[in-house]
Design brief:
Blueprint (H helix, E strand, L loop, with lengths): L1 E5 L8 E5 L9 E11 L1 H7 L16 E9 L11 E5 L8 E5 L3 E2 L7 H4 L3 H13 L7 E4 L5 H12 L3 E6 L2 H9 L4 E4 L4 H8 L5 E6 L6 H7 E9 L12 H6 L3 E4 L7 H20 L8 E5 L3 H10 L5 E5 L2
Parallel strand pairs: 8-9, 8-11, 9-10, 11-12, 12-13, 14-15
Antiparallel strand pairs: 1-2, 3-4, 3-6, 3-15, 4-5, 5-7
Helix pairs in contact: 3-4, 3-9
The structure holds NADP nicotinamide-adenine-dinucleotide phosphate.
NADP nicotinamide-adenine-dinucleotide phosphate binds next to helix 1, helix 3, helix 4 and strand 9.
Length: 324
C-alpha cells in the first residue's frame, strides 16, 4: 500500500509517499481501506519528533479516518467487508489501509459524506470525552480557545447543544465571525483582554468549564476567570508546559485542573469514548445541530502541503487528506 512516511524528524518536506507492506488485522481488529484521513495539530508534533506514537501503535502519522472495512480479524462481530466506517486511531491514518481495534470503529453519522467523515472522529472524541469529564451541563458558562479550529468549532457547538453559554477566542476577524456563525455567544480576540470580556458576558460569574489547548501561557488568566467550582481541562500545550499555580486562588474557588490525552488511553477506554461519540454526537451532526468544520481537501500525496497550511495558522477548520 502507499503511506506517508516521515523519513526523519523535521520540516513538512520530510513527509514522503512510499510503498510499504499492507498490515493485516489480528484478533479483535479490522483492516480499513482508507477513503479520507483528518490532519490534526498533534500530527505536526509527531512529524517534528516531539510526539512519538504510543507503544504498539503504527509509526505512520494519522489519528482518524473514514473508509470501508477491508478485512475482519478473528473474534470481531458486527462488521462485514465493505461496511462504511470511521475510526479513532493511535496512528496510521495517512495510508491506503490501516488496522484498528474494532471498538474504535463506528458507523458514520447519517447524511455525512466520507470525506467529511474522515475529519470528524478525533475532534468529536476529544471534545465529548473532555466535556463529559468536566461535567459541562445546561446553564454553565464554557470557554474554548481557537474556536475556529477543528477542536474549537466542535467544542462551541457541542457545548451549545448541552445548553451551555459558549465563549471562544480566535486570532482574526474572519475566525471570530466563524465562531459566531456556529453559535458562540461571545467571540473575542486572544490578542485582546479576553478575561474582561468573559467576566462581562457572565456578569462576573466566570467560567464553569474551560477547554484549554494552550497550557502554561494562560494558566494565570484561567485561574482568575474560573468560576467557583470551575473546571480547567488542559488538552494541549501550544503555550508551554510549565507555569506557577496559585493554589490559594484554586483553593478559594474550590476549582479543579484536569489534563488528558485521548491517544495514549487503553483500547477499552477509547472504545467507550467512540461508543459515546456515536450515541451522543452523531445524532447532533445528522440533525444539523453540529455543522462539520469547513474543509480544505488535499490528496494523500500532498501531506507536506497539508502540514504547511496547518502550521501557517491561516487555515480555518479541518484539513483532510483523501486517497485515490
Ligand atoms: N489532549 C487530547 O487528547 C487532544 C486531542 C486533540 C487535539 N488536542 C489539542 O487541541 C489543540 C487544537 O487541536 P486542533 O487539531 O483543533 O488544531 P487547530 O485546528 O490547528 O487549532 C489550533 C487552534 O489554536 C488556536 N491558538 C493558537 N494560538 C493561540 C493563542 N495564543 N491563544 C488562543 N488560541 C490560540 C488557533 O487559533 P487561531 O487559528 O484563531 O489563531 C487554532 O484555532 C491542539 O493543541 C491539539 O494538540 C488535544
Amino acid at each position: 500500500m502507499l503511506a506517508v512516511i516521515a523519513v526523519e524528524a523535521g520540516a513538512p518536506e520530510v513527509l514522503r509517499v512510499e510503498e510499504v507492506e499492507t498490515p493485516h488485522p489480528g484478533p479483535g481488529e479490522v483492516l480499513i481501506k482508507v477513503a479520507a484521513a483528518g490532519v490534526n495539530r498533534a500530527d505536526l508534533l509527531q512529524r517534528q519528533g516531539h510526539y512519538p506514537p504510543p507503544p504498539g501503535a503504527s509509526p505512520i502519522i494519522g489519528l482518524e479516518c473514514s473508509g470501508d472495512i477491508a478485512e475482519v480479524g478473528p473474534g470481531v462481530t458486527g462488521w462485514e467487508v465493505g461496511d462504511a466506517c470511521m475510526a479513532l486511531l493511535a496512528g496510521g491514518g495517512y495510508a491506503e489501509y490501516v488496522v484498528v481495534p474494532a471498538g474504535q470503529v463506528v458507523e458514520p453519522p447519517d447524511g455525512i459524506d466520507r470525506v467529511t467523515a474522515g475529519g470528524l472522529m478525533e475532534t468529536a472524541a476529544t471534545v465529548s470525552s473532555n466535556l463529559h469529564l468536566a461535567g459541562l451541563s445546561s446553564g454553565d458558562f464554557f470557554l474554548v480557545h481557537g474556536g475556529s479550529g477543528g477542536i474549537g468549532s466542535m467544542a462551541i457547538q457541542y457545548a451549545k447543544a448541552l445548553g451551555a453559554t459558549a465563549m471562544a477566542t480566535a486570532g482574526s476577524a474572519a475566525k471570530l465571525d466563524y465562531c459566531r456563525s456556529v453559535g458562540a455567544d461571545l467571540a473575542v480576540s486572544y490578542r485582546e483582554d479576553w478575561v474582561a470580556a468573559v467576566q462581562d458576558l457572565s456578569a462576573g460569574h466566570g467560567v464553569d468549564v474551560v477547554l484549554d489547548p494552550i497550557g502554561a501561557k494562560y494558566l494565570g488568566q484561567h485561574l482568575t476567570v474560573l468560576a467557583t467550582e470551575g473546571r480547567l481541562v488542559v488538552i494541549g500545550l501550544q503555550g508551554g508546559q510549565k507555569a506557577e499555580v496559585n493554589l490559594g486562588q484554586l483553593l478559594s474557588k474550590r476549582g479543579r485542573i484536569l489534563a488528558t490525552t485521548v491517544r495514549s488511553r487503553p483500547v477499552a477506554e477509547k472504545s467507550a469514548i467512540c461508543a459515546r461519540v456515536a450515541e451522543a454526537v452523531w445524532p447532533l451532526i445528522s440533525s444539523g445541530a453540529i455543522r462539520p468544520a469547513p474543509q480544505t481537501v488535499l490528496r494523500l500525496e500532498q501531506a507536506a502541503e497539508a502540514h504547511r497550511q496547518l502550521e501557517s495558522g491561516d487555515n480555518l477548520g479541518k484539513i483532510i487528506l483523501t486517497t485515490s
